[in-house]
Amino acid sequence: MTNAWTDIKNTDLVVVMGGNAAEAHPCGFKWVTEAKAHRGARLIVVDPRYTRTASVADFYAPIRQGTDIAFLLGLIRWCMENDKVQWEYTKAFTNASYIVKDGFGYQDGLFTGYDEEKRDYDRSSWDYVIGEDGYAVTDPTLQHPRCVWNLLKQHVNFYTPEMVERICGTPKEKFLKVAQMIGECSSPTRTMTSMYALGWTQHSHGAQNIRAMAMLQLILGNIGVRGGGMNALRGHSNIQGLTDLGLMSHLLTGYLNMPTEQEADFETYMKSRQFKPLRPGQTSYWQNYRKFMVSFQKAMWGDAATAENDWAYDYLSKLDVPAYDVLRMFELMNAGRVNGYICQGFNPVLAFPNRGKITAGLSKLKFLVTMDPLETETARFWENHGEFNDVDTRAIQTEVFQLPTTCFAEEEGSLTNSGRWLQWHWAGGSPPGEAQHDTWIMAQIFLRMRELYRKEGGAFPDPILNLSWEYHDPNEPEPEELAKEINGRALRDLTDPSDPAKVLVPAGKQVVNFSQLRDDGSTMCGCWIYSGCFNEAGNNMARRDNHDPDETGAYLGWTFAWPLNRRTLYNRASADLQGRPWDPSRKLLEWDGTKWTGYDVPDIAPNAKPGEVGPFIMNQEGVSRLFSRGMMRDGPFPAHMEPFESPVPNVLNPKMRGNPVARIFESDVAQFGTSEEFPYAATSYRLTEHFHYWTKHNRVNASLQPEFFVEISEELAAEKGITLGGWVRVWSKRGSVKAKAVVTKRIRPLRCDGKVVHVIGIPLHWGFVGAAKKGFGPNSLSPFVGEANIETPGYKAFLVNIEPSTPPAGVVA
Amino acid sequence: MPRYAQPGDEVHPGHPVTVSRYGPLARLNHWITALSLILLALSGLAMFHPSLFFLSDLFGGGQNTRAFHPWIGVVLFASFFVFFFQLWRANLPERTDVVWLSRIRDVVAGNEESLPELGKYNAGQKFIFWSMAFLILVLIGTGIVIWDRYFETATTIETQRVAVLVHSIAAVLIICIFILHVYAAIWTRGTLRAMTRGTVTGGWAWRHHRKWLRELAGQRKTKPAK
Amino acid sequence: MNIQVSRRGLLKGAGAAAAGTSLAAMGFGEAEAAVAAHVRPMKLANTTETRNTCPYCSVACGVIIYAKGDLRKGERADIIHIEGDADHPTNLGTLCPKGAALKDFVHAPTRLQYPMVRRPGSDKFERISWDAALDRIARLMKDDRDANFLARNKDGTPVNRWTTTGMLAASATTNETAWATFKVAKALGIVGFDNQARV
Amino acid sequence: MNDSPRTAVSNPPTQSMISNLGPGDLVRRSATESLPPPERQLTPVAKLIDVSKCIGCKACQSACVEWNDTTPAIGENVGVYTNPHDLTENMFTLMRFTEWVNPETDSLEWLIRKDGCMHCADPGCLKACPAPGAIVQYTNGIVDFIHENCIGCGYCVKGCPFNIPRISKADHRSYKCTLCSDRVAVGQGPACAKACPTQAIVFGTKEDMKAHAAGRIEDLKSRGYSNAGLYDPPGVGGTHVMYVLHHADKPHIYAGLPDDPRISPIVQTWKGLTKYVGLAAMGLLAAGSVVHGLFARPNRVAPEDEAHAEQLVESPPGGSRETA
Q1: pLDDT per residue as tens digits for the range C2-26
Q2: Are the Cβ atoms of D12 and C39 closer than 8 angstroms?
Q3: What is the pTM of this model?
Q4: Would the CB atoms of D17 and C64 count as touching at under 8 Å?
Q5: Domain count, chain C
Q6: What is the four-CA torsion angle of A705, A709, A714, A719, rounded to 10 degrees?
Q7: Closest by Cα among C43, C101, C13, C48 to D185
Q8: Is B208 a catalytic residue?
């Protein structure tokens, strides 16, 4: 989220698309109802289903899953056509005026440089014209035919309201009603917020869904302002934290990247990370990359990381592929190239697509370790549960360890919420039985392995032997010790560059925040963006001052938000070129002539003059990007792409299937179904009564939503002779499930490209362990394909078939 | 074929003459029914009016009262209808009943001489007999409808509301009938022994049920000697 | 001891006594035998409060854990209730149907209590001690790493990849746990390292 | 002692507190003729359920189960979102879902109503209850069941105009929403109101709640719900659980919410006329018999009756005996 949950109360219009906030985030959705009740805000829901969010919406428009880009580009086109643009903002704060290279173009649904063999683009032409001065060439008048604005206008021209109706199945008048409501927010004094979640990310073109809305928000001037922003509603309590901390194949902490094979040494690695400003006088904050990287290496390997050994750069793994993401790992597992797997609080058997492939993969492992407070289907993947898990137990040779961990109530530490707040919590109960903290378990595994390497030696032991593990009790690092490490401290006295006599931070003391980090090895910091969370002032994540001056929703005294306790990202953009708030009634920051003041921590140097330094300091341009250059694999502009399994062909290019650059493994191609075989468009989602596969263990939630079901329209039910509450079988090219049928008016057939499209909804909360009735998950059906840029599995749009059925064996009808 | 006499009815000469009116089975039946009715009245009244709730303590509290009442009802029903099939013939109405009723003042005043000669039962007794039968049917019927433990979901709440109203009205009526019955039995001296010893005196029979006595006497004469 | 409990207890006693005597007296009790009006005793009286946050979605609502016993005093703490923290700016004390039932998640019958192992081909889990389990896991991991670790690629560039053992990190662990986990996984050279960000 | 709370959302106390609701606060008590007048008048409280703000998340159900320590059964899916399928002795409140197509706009509206005890000012359950003190009404409007006094007869079910109470098959006592009287008694709001994510459920003094409702109704009218209104049915003297409805002109579309609820006339007759007339009839008859017994001379068998009988049995003498 660019803004905080509590900031949503400041909005005038909430657009929930690609998500279902009321269902999945009820208490966050509270702030939508607050905005409605106290600001008269309106709520729009665009979704294939009439959701719980829609039940309290002012306007609902249906859409076929997977076609959001067409809808959003249609909106951008409508705003351009009807002069619903926040011009001053767009001109000053976006790259609308930047001139693009001549080579760049787009036709038949493809951008220039496509290589069908590699399923990849040559992106060299997707860039600005760079002048002799080394800066990007711009045309502030937006007259130049090759400026981003005009190229965008040309690009979106295709998406007329008629075309939107043809692709998305959204009736033209409903689309126009949405467009009008949204268009009003181009006024500097009206803001709109976008609340989305996995309804946008879980597509082969997920990142482009989000970009399309971000672009719309930018031309409406809604980024960086109160009640605006792009608000990604993260699904798990600390998934924001785990991503910030880089617990991913291709990441290090704070969005530093893992090196690749091409980056053989530290200098080569740093060379591609200069981040030189593209416009005069701009701040390009990533220029501090080296400081963060060196401090990170010092946090990892302490004294073993020296200038001489390039800060132990060799200790880091170097990737030969973009990432060893989960889909790739399970592909390798099936190929027999993975022997061991550790699942910490994770349930792949229900979480990852094409369950058959997941189970087959786990069955090929030599050993599997699960760490979890609860039973999981993964820990028992080898156990036969009839139709619910029909495996040949004897044949599975995997050795499985099930380690009991504590849960939230029994442990202390911080979680990072969707609004980037790091909130500390305390243990309130004693763990059951022999359950242990994850920190203890990880320490035990590490200490045992380190001991083995000390005794026996082995493959490259250095990174293990030298890993900094300076804890009061090495067997179980304390949360506060770890938090201090994440914040970072001075390893030597840090002196003022301008006055060497002046010690800013004495050796051994916590740094105030990342602005004090150095690239000479004199500082260490586990995760630079978190720096400031636990400094000499104490544990800022544990702060509990809930005062909110002038009720802006900022709550600066409550816990700690990264970066630097900033609550709204890009907040400098809330003020115009003179530094005056666009909307005086919703002031966030203001230039007082010498510095930025206001309700939030400025997202810019406090003394950076308005009109000189752009608000988007993490970009080399200093402005935001309507045209993203070569930064995304599938295009500098979003463009309509059908799902890999789609009921209708892509109107732009019937030959094109899914995202042209999305990675597909050979073995999976054969498992894509066609609309002839599988006529119905399926989508998967959460229900508010449950959280993933956890709450089915809880009798209360189990009683509120006891049994697996699928949702279909009354029309489809009639067509197929399916009765309310009757059993149905739903199957795809990859698998088959049995479910109860919820026949509802909330799903209605759509008409797309002259064809009637029936939508089938499949919630995801059931499995074969727990208190609720045994059931299946949509992952038995969904395809094994990832998003082109980040490999998020596509759960939201795939094809299935359905028929009336009998209960699964052993279940009484 | 006797008109009034029932199996077991017989006169025994002597001073005074005695007449068997009820056999042991009939008497047992009567008393089970009577006891059930009393218990039902007590438990029912406890749930009928707050001022009578204290009666529930006789059954060990409200919960027991609620639990026992319907079961006692079942016993009453069974017992009464065994009784019923022994007596219903003798309670069939006849012309003299009308005459008897038309002289109800004399009945209350006890001027039997101005009343017609009667069979085994007078109209009053017959009225009690039939209304008991009817009310018990109504009570068991409505009682089952409001017997939540087993039949809670069998009927709609609206039906149950009607049932509970009818049940209480029927209960009031049956208690009134019961009072009449008991009082009449006491006021008409010499009656109680019919249900205790099973016999009445000839005089009693002569005074209250002369036709019945005549018939029995006649039977005796025509009967072959032992 | 909650005042109400005792008051209620007294009334019950009194009620029973009244019934007793009157019954003895004339075989009848009295309506007064009924327990006087009272509300349920406040069940949170004398419990320990602990501030925590909901472990489910990313709204991270503030919750208060009410327990019998106080961990801070080194006592065993049994959680008897969890409800929203009205002081929390985001949820203002409210909770969703999942958060409102957190107590039953903590006390779920399927909460794991002991380390278990399932031997190859076996159809059941067996108890195993922590030490035995951890020693075995460390051994399996080291053997696999030593056998399959790729120190340098064919061009001789150090790449330090261990691709034959992967790890998935939990989405509900604390940042502190995540950092410890990160350190171990990256130091071991596990590249098949991922989390729930995508699902 | 503290008066009724003004809010649903504050953190409950953990120190022992004296209850704010005791025998002295009763305004009605089931099957009790002479109830001493309450010692004081507490400010009437109310729970306001704004159906237009409700997202049907069931947090209220969850919070209710947790607070009241009930154990609803894990049922099955029968094709609807309403789970459990009805109120039970273990589920005091229930989200009832209705998919309603508005005939005027032809657009779908998902009507979600939180069902549960309405805490009527004139409670039918209390009127019907035969067990002294099993159902009580406090001066702040809360209608509560005192389970120790409940005899499990089910009369409350028949008395309730909203079909709320449920009799436990386990302990044969009647259960329903208590409006969290135990929380209110220490100055807290009900568990459901505290949990409600969108604050569609709010709690406070009835006066405040009516004012709050007025504001909500205004907002709804501005969004085109011209018939938005407050549901506080006069037929039962008003309720201490009220709804804001977008279609207050037709409450029945919300899963059969009664348009004009009142205590059934049948129940009125049963608990009114029948009770008194019946008692009188039985009393009079009994008394009458006694009087008649005392003053009218009993109907005695006279000696001549016996003589007649003997004569009848003996005569004609001899003959027949000889032939015997």
Answers
A1: 333 333 333 333 333 333 333 333 3
A2: no
A3: 0.93
A4: no
A5: 4
A6: -160
A7: C43
A8: no
